[in-house]
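Structure ticket #2291
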Amino acid sequence: MATEKVCNSIVETVGHTPMIRLNHVTANLGHEVYAKLEFLNPMGSVKDRIARWMIEKAEKDGRLQPGQMIIENSSGNTALGLAMMAIQKGYRLKVVVRDRISREKINQLNALGVEVYLVDATLPPESPDSYNNITPRLAAATPGCYFPDQHNNRENNEAHYQTTGPEIWEQMEGRIDLFVAGIGTGGTIGGVARFLKEKDPAIRVVAVDPEGSVFYDWFHHRRMVTPGPYLIEGLGDEFLIGCADFTHIDDIIRVNDRDAFHATRELAKREAVLAGGSSGAALWAIRQIASNLDIARPARIVTIFADGSSRYLSTIFNDKWMQAQGLM
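Resolution: structure written out below.
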């Protein structure tokens, strides 16, 4: 294997993550399942890609000037990616996060010197102090700040159309039957799906949504439901958002916390893949889909493991926490 060149900063290490075949947790499916390990990005998640893309685009067109404050809301992963960009490029960063995110994410943000604003996760979406409403208000009250607005910024989708999608296509040598990924902001699945469908319209794309999120009911029934509580971080939302483009999605499957987290723990124990809860959700969904595939040969199924276990050691991988949530 060729030795990689020296990078000028940690920012240059974003992307070009490995693709692996899962062997043990999918042994009985009769299909080939591959996972792109996005938790091997420098700050530990797929969101490093959009953090770099949005900041560099904003710098290029003058929306972001040296020394400015960046304000964003995040389930933690985008915040960590933005922290990397802020440190490397000399910006200040304030992030709004729900108070249900893992302690590990808060600790990592604190270690990076980020100003963290905690919001009550139980507030209804229409509350002016809810997660999605308070952030633009904070941005408006902060003169000269830059608000990337990952939930409505189409650069989120574009980052994956330009980078993640082409990497997957190349790694799989253009042979893909099914792409399965979680849907949160919609940027990852939207951008990758668009790229893959342009290459091969026969590729089927399935999104994974937590029980309690609104996307499943909107996709299947075109109705908005009252959102419910769930513990999977980084997936789903309480209302439709600008980046959640369903154009290239063929189906959405719903997963609950219990199934997602037990699959996450199984990945660790049977594959030595230390991934986060959204990865377990994707694995659980693939198992359901694979059992009903009408295909005469083994299908090639690709997914994305968005972040790693280090952010969930006190939750998903903690028996006492799992028991307290009624999940064990």
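Closing remark: The first strand starts at residue 19 and ends at 22.
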